[in-house]
Amino acid sequence: MRKEYIVIRIDAAPDNSPQVLVSLAEPKDVREKQPTTIPMFGGFGSMDDLMKNLNKIITSQMMSSFTTTLKLSIKEYEDSGIKVGDKIYLDIIKPDILSNEIILNAEQMQKYEEVMSILTDLGVKPNEWASKRNDIVEMINRGLSAKEIADAIAKSLK
Predict the structure, then answer these.
(1) 8 A C-beta contact, residue 115 and residue 124
(2) How far is CA 59 from its chain centroid?
(3) Residue range 106-135, pLDDT digits in tens
(4) Radius of gyration for the chain, computed over Cα atoms and rounded to the nearest angstrom
(5) Cβ-count burial of 35 within 10 angstroms (0-12 exposed, 13-18 middle, 19+ buried)?
(6) Tens digits of per-residue pLDDT, 32-86?
(7) Distance between CA atoms of 125 and 76, rounded to whole angstroms?
């Protein structure tokens, strides 16, 4: 499944880690939220009208505030070239256990992500290391560190 988003905000990580938080919203939410302020009293003739529509105001504020946030390394962010207002697409894929998709537990996934981050920092692009996924998982299962795995993969790609 492919989802379309608009980049609405880019922030430094609050924990001072070398990462960037990219906030995304669906295009329909961005279009609906164009006016940045909702006139609380200006559109209502009386306090009764305000009270009748208060639920709508609260709901619209809550609904338009939902965002999807990606946490990227600084290198990934710089390589992506995205900026506020850009349209991007995310592919959501549920791995099929009967296919060639690799299933990892949480600890293995964390190490896998560390390897990807190190490879990115070394200048190895995802399309270059994608063919080495099985090798990476095998090295993770053998207990090698993320640095050792990334170095071995980078060396094999040269």
Answers:
(1) no
(2) 25
(3) 788 888 889 988 988 888 887 787 778 888
(4) 22
(5) exposed
(6) 655 444 444 445 555 666 566 666 555 545 544 577 888 888 888 888 889 999 9
(7) 10
Tokens linked to 35: 């006016």
Alpha-carbon torsion 102, 104, 110, 115, what sign? negative
* Dihedral sign from CA coordinates of 107, 108, 109, 110: positive
Assessment of whether the complete model's pTM goes beyond 0.85 = no
- CA–CA distance from 82 to each of 5, 20, 98, 127, 142 (Å)? 12, 12, 35, 19, 37
Parse the chain into domains and list their residue ranges. Answer: 1-92, 95-158
pLDDT at 74: 87
Question: Tokens at residue 5, please?
Answer: 């988003």
Query: Using CA atoms, how far apart are residues 30 and 11, in angstroms rounded to an integer?
Result: 18
Q: Are 21 and 37 in contact (CB under 8 A)?
A: no
pLDDT digit string, tens, across residues 10-33: 888 877 788 888 989 888 877 765
- Say how far apart CA 96 and CA 118 lie, in whole Å: 27
First to last CA, the chain: 34
Q: Which two tokens stand for residue 71?
A: 């946490």
